[in-house]
Every structure is written in structure tokens, then in C-alpha cells.
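[recover] target loaded
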């Protein structure tokens, strides 16, 4: 059987039907007609190789350009750091060191940590100091009593700026203690609520793949507020948390003698915090070369905020924060008796001080107030009740 190849025989305008008839006729005579093959340089064979090569080139270019892009756009790097925080969290809980060249507390600036506390200095000088009898009547008129709080687990949002001078003249220790607790309880709860709102916002930001400029700016403010200069997210998680109500009340009671101390009445200092540079009250009987003073505040609320910020930032209370974070991680309640044991650095008496705190908590049933809620004045707080 012969094979021939048609080339010039077939023109562009050649009738296909005629070609089929010719092909059939010649085939019957043992002749096979084939079209001249078109030139094909094997593109189909090299198509896969071509696409693979182009993909590899794009990957190489991406790997080369991305570090430059991140350096030019620090927001991208920040988002990566923010959302990578869980890998280090357990290490922080266990007290391990984070691999950073700069220490967490290096260059700690109290002006940043207490910036929102200093804002209370703008409180008008004519803030009214109510008498003890007036405050007692106010609480009676609003049906605000500790017995009712223990039953309902709700606290009326009555905020007083100053302690009554007559508190130290109340002979009944039970009555004096109750009045003191009633005054500071709403203030402690309000500060805890603010921290919980911040904490909720922090975890909301961390759960996002991409953060807005507003969220990044908020985070930067909180890094300064909590003294985390290297912007380490796990450390911020550990520091941004509340102080159990019973523990805060116990420390305020111990430091002020249930509101009767000179520091509490003259300087609204509920927690005996020292200062070496700020405005303060010099302890009575202190030696002439004594440089520290007891920090004073315009209002009681400022003292509560400064106290919580102190426990949440100072290196002396690192063990307190680690235990609190571990309790959180184990989904357990914040036990004030356990946490009190970690505050031996708060006073010069050390372990004796923590022992007294636990006695105050137990003898006055202060743990009853750990799960109470402050009745809201604004819609923001409703979700916390």
C-alpha cells in the first residue's frame, strides 16, 4: 500500500466533499492520502515544564520581596507578631524568659503607667467630703447594705470621692468596717470592670487575622500603660487582669486601719504605695534622711487604679501575676487566699504580711464579694453582669 502526502494539491479553497471522495477512491486503489503535517515544536510537551518554571520564579520573587515589604510596612509585621502570641503564652506562665534583646521592664516609665491616674489631678478642688452620718443615710435611702449585697450579688453604683473624717470616731468596729467596705467596694468593682472590658477587647484583637490602625494604636497605648516596652503580647495578657475584690479590700483595710489612717484621710491613699519623686505624705516619725513618701491622690478612685496598676506591672509581683494567669489558664476562679501568698514583697514583714491578709479575708468573709457585680450606669457594663 502506497502512501502519498498532499501538499500543493489541496488549496485553501478546496471543497472538503471533493477531498473526501478523492480520498475514498484512492484508498480503494491501495493508496493512502495524508495531509502534510504542520510544524509543531512540541509546545504541548513543554507546557507543564513552562508553567512549573514560571510558578517557581514567582515564589522566589515573593520570598525576596516580602521582607522588604514588611520593613517598609511595619503594620504587617505587627499583625504577624500580634497573632503569633499564643506560642509564647505558656512560657510566660511558667516564668520563662522571652527571647528578646530588650528586657520587659527596661526603662520603665511611671508617667506612662500612671498617666490615666494623674488625670485625676484635674478633679475640682471643691470636691465634697460627706460626713459619716450623711453617707450612712445615703446608703439607707438607696437600700445599699452588705447583707443585701451578699444575697443579691449586686452593688449599687454609689461612688464617693473621699472618706468621712468621722470614720475613725465610730466606736463599733463592725459598723466602721461595714462603712469602709461599702465606700470602697463600688470603686474596686468599677476598676475591675474597666480592666475586663480592656481584656475582652485585647482577645478580640488577637483573634483577628488583620488589625486596623485604630486597634494597633490602642495596643500601643496599653503596652505603655502596662509597662511592656518590648510590645510582648503574652506579657500583656498576663498583666492585663483584675485583682480579686476580697484581696483588694483586705489590703486597703490593712494599709489604712479600715480607713482611719492619716494617709487615707489626708491623701486618699488606700494602699500605702510609696513614691520617691511624686507628691506624697511623709510618714510620721520618719528619719530626716528618709526619701520615700506615701503617695497621695485627689480622690479614692485614683488610689484604687494606681494600686491595681502597681500589682499588674511591678517586678516585685511577678509571681502574683504568674499564679493568676495559671488559674485563668486552668479555668479556675481567682482565689484571693492563694494569690495573697504571692504578695510577701508588698510589705517589709514579708510572709507575716500575707498571713495577716488571709486572716482579714477569712474573719470578715470578704470572699463573699468576689463574685458580686456592679450595677451599670452605662450600657457598656451590662454585658459584665
Amino acid at each position: 500500500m502506497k502512501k502519498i502526502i498532499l501538499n500543493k494539491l489541496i488549496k485553501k479553497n478546496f471543497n472538503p466533499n471533493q477531498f473526501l471522495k478523492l480520498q475514498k477512491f484512492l484508498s480503494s486503489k491501495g493508496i493512502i492520502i495524508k495531509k502534510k503535517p504542520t510544524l509543531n515544536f512540541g509546545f504541548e510537551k513543554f507546557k507543564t515544564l513552562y508553567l512549573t518554571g514560571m510558578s517557581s520564579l514567582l515564589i522566589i520573587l515573593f520570598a525576596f520581596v516580602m521582607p522588604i515589604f514588611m520593613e517598609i510596612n511595619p503594620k504587617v509585621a505587627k499583625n504577624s507578631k500580634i497573632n503569633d502570641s499564643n506560642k509564647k503564652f505558656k512560657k510566660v506562665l511558667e516564668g520563662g524568659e522571652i527571647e528578646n534583646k530588650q528586657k520587659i521592664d527596661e526603662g520603665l516609665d511611671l508617667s506612662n503607667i500612671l498617666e490615666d491616674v494623674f488625670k485625676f489631678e484635674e478633679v475640682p478642688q471643691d470636691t465634697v467630703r460627706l460626713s459619716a452620718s450623711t453617707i450612712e443615710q445615703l446608703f439607707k435611702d438607696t437600700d445599699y447594705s452588705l447583707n443585701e449585697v451578699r444575697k443579691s450579688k449586686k452593688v449599687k453604683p454609689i461612688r464617693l470621692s473621699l472618706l468621712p473624717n468621722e470614720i475613725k470616731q465610730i466606736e463599733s468596729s463592725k459598723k466602721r468596717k461595714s462603712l469602709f467596705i461599702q465606700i470602697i467596694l463600688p470603686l474596686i468593682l468599677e476598676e475591675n470592670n474597666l480592666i475586663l472590658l480592656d481584656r475582652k477587647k485585647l482577645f478580640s484583637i488577637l483573634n483577628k487575622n488583620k488589625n486596623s490602625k485604630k486597634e494597633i494604636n490602642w495596643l500601643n497605648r496599653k503596652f505603655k500603660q502596662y509597662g511592656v516596652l518590648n510590645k510582648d503580647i503574652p506579657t500583656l495578657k498576663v498583666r492585663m487582669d483584675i485583682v480579686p475584690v476580697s484581696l483588694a479590700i483586705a489590703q486597703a483595710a490593712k494599709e489604712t486601719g479600715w480607713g482611719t489612717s492619716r494617709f487615707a484621710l489626708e491623701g486618699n491613699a488606700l494602699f500605702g504605695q510609696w513614691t520617691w519623686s511624686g507628691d506624697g505624705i511623709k510618714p510620721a516619725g520618719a528619719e530626716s534622711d528618709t526619701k520615700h513618701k506615701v503617695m497621695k491622690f485627689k480622690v479614692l478612685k485614683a488610689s484604687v487604679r494606681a494600686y491595681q496598676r502597681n500589682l499588674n506591672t511591678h517586678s516585685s509581683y511577678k509571681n502574683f501575676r504568674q499564679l493568676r494567669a495559671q488559674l485563668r489558664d486552668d479555668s479556675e476562679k481567682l482565689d484571693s487566699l492563694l494569690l495573697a501568698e504571692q504578695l510577701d514583697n508588698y510589705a517589709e514583714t514579708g510572709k507575716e504580711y500575707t498571713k495577716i491578709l488571709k486572716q482579714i479575708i477569712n474573719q470578715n468573709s470578704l470572699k463573699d464579694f468576689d463574685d458580686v457585680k456592679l450595677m451599670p450606669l452605662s450600657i457598656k457594663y451590662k454585658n459584665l453582669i
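[recover] notes: The first helix runs from residue 16 to 28.
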